[in-house]
Amino acid sequence: MTTPRTKILVTGGAGYIGSHAVVELYQAGYQPVIVDNFSNSQESALAGIESILGTTVPIYRIDCADEAALRGVFAAEPNIAGVIHFAAFKAVGESVQKPLAYFKNNVGSMLALLAVMPEFGVENLVFSSSCTVYGIPDALPVTEATPTKPASSPYGRTKQMCEDIVHDVAAAPDNKLRTILLRYFNPIGAHESAKIGELPLGVPNNLVPFITQTAAGIREKLTINGSDYDTPDGTNIRDYIHVVDLAKSHVVAVQRLLDHKATDTVETFNVGTGHGNSVLEVVKTFEQVTGQKLNYSIGPRRPGDVPAIYADATKAAEVLGFRTETSLADSLASAWKWQQTLAK
Ligand code: UFG
User: Fold this and answer.
1) Shortest-distance Cα residue to atom 4 of ligand 1
2) Total Cβ atoms within 10 A of residue 136
């Protein structure tokens, strides 16, 4: 008889990062169970996951902020060992237009989880936070000890609020919850199989899907949002991490919690490569690695953009043993392969 796989609930498991995490979890020997309401994901992600894994993954089509529905999932899936909480709205610009929707969804789903988990004795949580909590940092690279700054958008504020909520819950006298907060830098690229990847609805907000859609002829031209920043080539600097590398950080975080190796009730880790690349470097690298000439021009600055941010990735390396493996060039090649697959 084979021992059953350890069950991990993955909220937002059909989304961009969530789907890659589901694959890595399963391949590491866990049994992922997906919760997703498909508000910003597509059913085709499930087919991709199944095709990679050669098996189906349980999926509950509910809103994670619906506490009663969430309770039903925990009741139907006994022995959940931990939760990875991805489910959230993530568009910075949209959050300025619809702040209430962001607070209701992003904070609401966190509150629902924190209410239901203890009812079922589930004590391990990995939360997808963001480097957006650092705002415009005074010094680079940012470490986990870099002070957070006022968020530049309601989206960013929801991430800060969720971190604060977790800290307050963890400080309560009867607390049993242990949480790892993962502060992601900029995830890009797709699974090497090109069976799962980013599925932006409408015009992409993010740089890499905009680049691949421009190269594919879906968009006429990429506009680079400003070249007059105080950076070596004048364009913004970010830390671009391959989505499969990012997904793997969740597996090691879960493992750490289940092994009772966490040294604090809340631990925080940057998840980035530790290297910054400018927008122009990304464009040039994309052109080199794909052989595609990209139509682009320099436009005005985008309101709210941080001039430069990249991770100090030392803590994740030393404590989690986590290091990224994929270069920017390979990440961009995987994004292009995925774009070509989508076109078919
Ligand atoms: N950019 C362009 N042209 C575009 C799109 C983006 O020049 O058409 C530039 C941006 O101005 C920025 C860089 O490419 O300098 C990266 O932009 P993204 O929109 O891809 O990513 P952001 O760094 O703005 O945002 C990401 C996540 C957010 C998160 C934020 C934290 O998308 O969820 O990092 O800094 F909050």
Assistant:
1) 207
2) 12
CA atoms within 13 A on the CB side of 280: 12
pLDDT in tens, 3-41: 899 999 999 999 999 999 999 999 999 999 999 999 999
Q: Is 145 exposed, middle or buried (0-12, 13-18, 19+ CB in 10 A)?
A: exposed
Residues in the chain: 344
Domains of the chain, with CATH numbers?
Answer: 6-188+242-273+311-325 (3.40.50.720)
Ligand 1 binding pocket mutation candidate from 86, 225, 246, 284 (most atoms within 8 A of CB): 225
Cα(206) to ligand 1 centroid in Å equals 5
The DSSP-derived string for 220-256 is S-EEEE-S-SSSTTSS-EE-EEEHHHHHHHHHHHHHH
Q: 127-167, pLDDT tens digit by residue? A: 999 999 999 999 999 999 999 999 989 999 999 999 999 99
